[in-house]
Design a protein that fits this description.
This protein has one domain (2-170): Leucine Aminopeptidase, subunit E, domain 1 (3-Layer(aba) Sandwich), CATH 3.40.220. The chain is 39% helix and 19% strand. The chain has helices at residues 31-40, 42-53, 93-110, 129-141, 157-170; strands at 2-7, 17-22, 65-69, 77-82, 114-117, 149-154. Bound molecules: adenosine-5'-diphosphate.
């Protein structure tokens, strides 16, 4: 599997699946989530509501992932995953790793070859970017998958640099 880094907006990526850093309600939020629903149009929210009323009555648990259509986005699917809120009292890195692992599992189920990820939990959920980048790269590299390219789409130069560093340390 190939890992690529891009500085940009995940909603513009022409890929098979984009991963959304959602919240467990699946009913929309700020950051990446807001951007995906804005640009993807109402179809994504309609499918999220359907998932909530079917198998996800209590919402999507932290660390898990589920797919919907990508609506008007240039991608085919959105894989929604819920990152943990960063805590200084409790180590939640297993949950952050689980987001990447579970998203790849769902991508494999869909047959997605190219998957774009944001830096999960590093916005509203306040995970320090260097640590988040390390967990992201280690988990993606350590997870067996049929996905051919994982593209990290970083929104700020700082995030891009952190992922570049994490990737060079890993190789
Ligand atoms: P979380 O709640 O998991 O922290 P956020 O959406 O607040 O999720 O932030 C996750 C990361 O996504 C942050 O690094 C933020 O800068 C970045 N981000 C925000 N908008 C976009 C976008 N359109 N494309 C890619 N990354 C984005």
């Amino acid at each position: 599997m190939r890992i690529t880094l891009v500085l940009g907006d995940i909603t513009r990526q022409e890929v098979d699946a984009v991963v959304n850093a959602a919240n467990s309600s699946l009913l929309g939020g700020g950051g990446v989530d807001g951007a995906i629903h804005r640009r993807g149009g109402p179809q994504i929210l309609t499918e999220c509501r359907r998932l909530r009323s079917a198998q996800l009555g209590k919402g999507l648990p932290t660390g898990q992932a589920v797919a919907t259509t990508a609506g008007d986005l240039p991608a085919t699917w959105v894989i929604h995953t819920v990152g943990p809120v960063h805590s200084r009292q409790e180590d939640r890195s297993g949950l952050l790793a689980s987001c990447y692992r579970e998203s790849l599992r769902v991508a494999d189920e869909l047959g997605a070859a190219v998957v774009a990820f944001p830096a999960i939990s590093t916005g509203i959920y306040r995970w320090p970017i260097d640590d988040a980048a390390r967990i992201a790269i280690q988990t993606i590299c350590g997870t067996p998958t049929q996905v051919a390219e994982v593209r990290f789409v970083l929104f700020t130069p700082d995030a891009y640099t952190a992922f570049e560093k994490a990737l060079s340390r890993h190789r």
